[in-house]
Each structure stands twice: as structure tokens, then as C-alpha cells.
């Protein structure tokens, strides 16, 4: 019997599945009374007993067959079967090993093949454009080719992926990486497949789906050199040159398209099934909030867009962003702002796993983008509009084409980033993004104090008559609850905001009618954004930490962290309260 299929790296092919079926048929003659037998997969290694149909077949398809288990003595075969000399088992690529098997399975997920779609196993490849099919054929060729002749450990693709992983982990510069590639190419045997340049390496990884787009940015964040401005040499707003020198841009935005990655979630039967969890497997119980789908915002969205909500494969995402210093040196004046999308279709334990984060933008700069955040969001908003209309996708779980639609149902950020995303300034007298123009404030020494919290109490509450809080009794009703119509009406009064931080640009002074609005957020260009019940969320971690630090610092009288200082005592005196202090 030909056993060459045991070392076949493509475990998801129809050929491998047929051979596994023949093995199962062969083993049925040696089963015990319960239908159990030892499992020869790479995980169980003939040490665990499982049911032949329920587990063994599945394990062999997922984990692969033990490569050195050629004589099936644990499954009823004689101890010395006649295996012909020169059997094809000896002709398998010597470089293929477990890490290559994992790479092959990942590529198969990206390509869209599956092992259980029967006679239509070539369905997806027939539907894929020829150029895309050729790209994946090249990848599998690199996976099956050894790094050099007689190499037993690495294929060309595995070597490149691992080498790039080391580069990223240890922060090698591009120049040092190119020097290493040249040295490796010279040191390895003649005819090796080690790339000679960083360009060749990146080109291959882009085919795997690890690529991104470079978009040049104006020095003052006025505009992106994108779409109609992609060939411009100067900024159309401030007139500053696009380049520092010799085609080297001042800034460069990294944009990672999300549509291919959303499609890839449905090209694996396992993730495709998990993307339906929120609708088909989530436990619903009145009064319990376990998942965003249990919240009022999610339910209202479903009631407004019935067609979108009717398909459990429609993707609902949250958009999150925050700035960080990539160099681990606080003295270094540089900041990066990643924009990450999170899918809420997945189970809770997968939603927040970092492997399921969709990084869409990396915004660079010496300072935070501020009110110019919308400039950088432009390519993402364009793609989100297309995803709202829908793109064609293949669902491997149901073996059918469908229209993939996606939406961003809210943002998650800290308080400063809230201002960048929403357009409402979180500084000044009207800083509260909920109370808006009805924010209760009072000027004290060198600061603005936000008071009037007793107005949220019942009108008959005794604390409303107390003057110990801010020196006055409270007779006002709670702040007005502004509706979407109110907010849109306020935004109509906001003038056109000129993006950019150029020194030649005159700073625009807000009119009284504009309140604390600095702009109308680009997110309102999404067809559904104005109808959302909850558009922005504040990251609780930052708020809890700051409040806790201030309370503990004051109670424990920690130097430089306590809020009980001379200015605070003077403020109490000015307000006429707590005279004993």
C-alpha cells in the first residue's frame, strides 16, 4: 500500500481526505467493541484512544498523520509488512516538517480550500480570479521548495517568515537586515532560495496577506496625497512641499485594508462558524448584559436596519485608538496612533484576543493628530462605505456566496481622543460631551470646576438644600438629554474647518453658536452614523486610574499627588465652605 500521503503537507486537499478515509476503513477490522482505537495523529501519537469516526478522522485531518508511523502495527497490521523499496514515501520533500504543515494550513485558510466540500473541492479556486490564483500557487511552490537542496528543516517560505519575525522582535533596521540577507545568501549552498533584498522579502509577504499601503501625508497634516492628490508634489492647502528631499516624504501613513481580512474570516470553516456566534449560540437572558448584543444600542441598530441584522454574518465592529511612544523613551518627541477595529460577532473570549484585532491605520507624527484626525481616517471611511453597501464573499461554513456587510457601531477611546473622534472639544467651560451646552461649571483659581452634581438628585432630596458642597443650594433640573436631532442641529452651525497645523494658517476662533464643536466628524459620512444610539465610549481604565490616584493621593497625603494644597484651601475660602479647613 502506498503510504506517501502520510507526509502530504496539504492536509486539506481532497486526495489527503480520501487516503484518511481508506485508513479508517482499514482500521475498522481492529476496533474494540466500543469502536475505539489508538489515534495516530501528531498530537495523540498513538498514546490516546478515541472513536474512529468522531475523533480519529477529525484529528488526522486537523493535526496530520505521524510521519514515521509507516507500519500500522497498532491498528492490526503485521509487524513486518512488505513496503517496496523506493516507495514514494521516500520521495517527499525533505524540508517539509510540522512548522511547514502549519504554514500550509494557514495558506489553505487564506486560499479558501476545505477538506469536506466533496466533489466541489475546486469550487473556490475556479471562482478566484486567475491573477489571485497564480499568486497563491507561487506561495505553495515556495512552501514546498526547500531553502536549498537537501535542506531538512526549512522551506523557502518558512525561512523568510521566521527571519522577518526575528527582525520585528529585535527591531533590526532595514539596512542591517539587507546586510544579513546578503551574507546568508553567500554562506548558504549555491542555488539557495534565500532572498537577496528586503524588497523581495516584503513582496513575498505581501502575497501572503501581510502587506499594507503607504500614503504620504502633508508636513502639517493638511491632507493625504491620496486619490486625486496622489501625484501632487505640494500640499493643495498650505503649499508646503510633499518631500523633505529626493522623494522622501515628511510623513507616511500606513494603511491596512480590512476587507481582505474580513473575507479571510469566512474562508475557514471554524472562524466562519464563530462569526455567527452572537446570533446563534449566545445565551440571552433578560436583565443580563453579557455581550454588546444584549445592550440597547445594538438592539436599536437592528431595529433600524433589518436587512443588515437579518444576516448573522454581517459584521459589527468597534473602532478604538490611542497614542503611544514607540521608542520607549519619554524624552523622545514622537508618537504613533494606531486605529484598531474589533469584531463583536465572535464569542467574548475571542473578541478581545489580540489575534482578532484588525489594525487599520498607523498614524505617525511628532505630536498627536488633534482635530486633524479626520484627515488620516479618510481611506478607512471610504472602505467602510463600500463594506456597508456589501462585497461578495464565500462562506466556507455554509459553502455559499453571500454579500458581506460591515459597520462600525461606536468608538472606544480615552477623554482626549474622544475629542479627536467626536469633534466636541473636551477642554474649556463646556467640556462635558454629554451635557454639551448645559454643562454646569464655575471658574476657580486658575482652573474650571465642574459642579452642579446635586441637580441629578430628586427635587425633594435633602441634599439639594445643603450649601456644603459648593456654597449654594441646588434648584436646577438635571442637564438636558440631547437627542440626535439636537446634535445635528448644532453641527449645522459649525463652520468649515480648515485642517492642518501650518504656522501661516490663522487660528479660527469659535463662534458662540458653535459651542464646543471644532468640526463635524468624518464619521458622519457613514450612512448609519447619525442614527446610532451610542456613538462614543470612554475607556473606563483611564478614568478609574486617574480618579483612584487622586483619591488615594489625597487621603494618604502623598507628596505631589495630593489635591489638598494651598490653592485648594483658597478655593474653599472663596466658595465660603468648609471653614474649618
Spans of 5+ residues with little confidence (pLDDT < 50)?
Answer: 81-96, 112-127
Name the strands of the widest sheet in spatial order: 3-6-9-8-7-12-15
Shape category? globular
Mean model confidence by pLDDT: 82
What layout of secondary structure does this protein have?
Layout: H1 14-27, E1 36-38, E2 49-51, H2 52-63, H3 98-111, H4 123-127, H5 130-144, H6 156-169, H7 174-187, H8 198-208, E3 213-217, E4 243-245, E5 248-249, E6 251-255, H9 259-265, H10 269-274, H11 277-280, H12 296-304, H13 306-310, E7 315-321, E8 335-343, H14 348-351, E9 357-365, H15 373-389, E10 391-395, E11 400-404, E12 406-413, H16 415-422, E13 441-444, E14 447-450, H17 484-492, E15 536-538, H18 540-555, H19 566-575
Parallel strand pairs: 7-12, 12-15
Antiparallel strand pairs: 1-2, 3-6, 4-5, 6-9, 7-8, 8-9, 10-11, 13-14
Helix pairs in contact: 1-2, 3-5
Short recap of the structure:
By secondary structure, the protein is of the alpha+beta class. Helix content is 33%, strand content 13%.
Report what the structure shows:
With 581 residues, the protein is an alpha+beta fold. It contains 19 helices and 15 strands. The protein has a seven-stranded mixed beta sheet. It has a two-stranded antiparallel ribbon with strand order 1-2. Helix 1 packs antiparallel against helix 2 and helix 3 packs antiparallel against helix 5. The radius of gyration is 31 Å and the shape is globular. The N and C termini lie far apart (94 Å). About 6% of the residues have low confidence.
Amino acid at each position: 500500500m502506498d503510504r506517501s500521503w502520510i507526509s502530504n503537507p496539504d492536509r486539506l486537499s481532497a486526495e489527503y481526505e480520501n487516503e484518511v478515509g481508506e485508513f479508517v476503513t482499514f482500521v475498522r477490522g481492529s476496533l474494540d467493541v466500543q469502536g475505539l482505537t489508538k489515534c495516530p495523529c501528531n498530537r495523540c501519537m498513538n498514546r490516546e484512544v478515541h472513536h474512529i469516526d468522531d475523533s480519529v478522522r477529525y484529528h488526522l485531518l486537523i493535526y496530520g498523520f505521524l510521519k514515521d508511523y509507516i507500519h500500522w502495527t497498532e491498528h492490526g497490521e503485521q509487524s513486518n509488512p512488505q513496503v517496496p523499496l523506493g516507495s514514494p514515501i521516500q520521495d517527499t520533500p525533505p524540508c517539509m516538517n510540522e512548522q511547514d504543515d502549519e504554514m500550509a494550513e494557514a495558506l489553505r485558510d487564506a486560499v479558501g480550500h476545505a477538506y469536506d466540500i466533496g466533489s466541489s473541492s475546486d469550487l473556490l479556486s475556479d471562482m478566484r480570479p486567475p491573477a489571485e490564483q497564480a499568486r497563491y500557487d507561487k506561495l505553495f511552490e515556495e512552501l514546498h521548495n526547500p531553502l536549498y537542496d537537501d535542506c531538512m528543516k526549512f522551506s523557502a517560505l518558512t525561512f523568510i517568515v521566521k527571519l522577518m519575525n526575528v527582525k520585528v522582535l529585535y527591531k533590526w533596521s532595514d539596512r542591517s537586515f539587507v546586510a544579513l540577507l546578503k551574507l546568508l545568501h553567500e554562506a548558504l549552498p549555491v542555488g539557495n532560495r534565500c532572498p537577496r533584498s528586503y524588497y523581495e522579502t516584503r513582496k513575498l509577504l505581501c502575497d501572503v496577506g501581510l502587506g499594507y499601503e503607504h500614503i504620504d501625508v502633508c508636513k502639517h497634516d493638511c491632507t493625504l496625497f491620496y486619490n486625486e492628490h496622489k501625484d501632487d508634489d505640494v500640499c493643495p492647502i498650505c503649499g508646503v512641499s510633499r518631500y523633505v528631499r529626493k522623494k522622501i516624504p515628511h510623513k507616511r501613513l500606513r494603511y491596512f485594508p480590512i476587507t481582505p481580512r474580513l473575507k479571510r474570516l469566512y474562508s475557514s470553516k471554524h472562524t466562519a462558524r464563530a462569526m455567527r456566534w452572537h446570533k446563534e449560540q449566545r445565551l440571552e437572558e433578560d436583565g443580563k448584559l453579557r455581550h454588546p448584543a444584549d445592550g440597547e444600542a445594538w438592539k436599536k441598530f437592528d431595529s433600524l436596519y433589518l436587512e443588515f441584522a437579518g444576516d448573522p454574518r454581517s459584521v459589527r465592529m468597534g473602532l478604538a485608538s490611542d497614542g503611544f511612544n514607540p521608542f520607549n523613551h519619554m524624552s523622545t518627541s514622537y508618537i504613533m496612533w494606531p486605529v484598531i477595529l474589533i469584531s463583536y460577532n465572535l464569542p467574548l473570549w475571542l473578541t478581545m484576543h489580540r489575534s482578532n484585532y484588525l489594525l487599520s491605520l498607523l498614524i505617525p507624527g511628532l505630536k498627536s493628530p488633534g482635530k486633524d484626525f479626520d484627515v488620516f481616517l479618510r481611506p478607512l471611511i471610504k472602505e467602510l462605505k463600500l463594506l456597508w453597501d456589501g462585497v461578495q464573499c464565500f462562506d466556507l461554513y455554509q459553502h455559499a456566496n453571500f454579500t458581506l456587510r460591515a459597520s462600525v457601531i461606536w468608538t472606544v477611546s480615552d477623554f482626549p481622543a474622544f475629542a479627536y473622534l467626536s469633534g466636541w472639544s473636551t477642554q474649556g467651560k463646556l467640556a462635558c460631551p454629554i451635557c454639551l451646552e448645559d454643562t454646569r461649571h464655575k471658574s476657580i483659581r486658575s482652573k474650571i470646576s465642574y459642579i452642579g452634581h446635586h441637580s441629578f438628585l430628586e427635587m425633594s432630596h435633602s441634599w439639594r438644600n445643603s450649601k456644603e458642597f459648593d456654597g449654594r443650594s441646588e434648584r436646577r433640573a438635571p442637564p438636558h438629554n440631547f437627542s440626535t436631532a439636537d446634535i445635528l442641529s448644532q453641527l449645522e452651525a459649525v463652520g468649515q474647518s480648515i485642517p492642518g497645523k501650518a504656522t501661516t494658517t490663522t487660528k479660527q476662533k469659535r463662534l458662540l453658536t458653535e459651542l464646543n464643536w471644532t468640526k463635524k466628524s468624518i464619521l458622519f459620512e457613514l450612512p448609519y452614523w447619525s442614527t446610532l444610539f451610542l456613538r462614543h465610549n470612554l475607556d473606563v481604565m483611564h478614568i478609574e486610574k486617574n480618579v483612584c490616584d487622586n483619591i488615594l493621593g489625597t487621603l494618604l497625603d502623598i507628596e505631589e499627588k495630593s489635591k489638598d494644597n494651598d490653592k485648594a484651601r483658597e478655593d474653599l475660602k472663596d466658595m465660603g465652605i468648609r471653614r474649618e479647613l
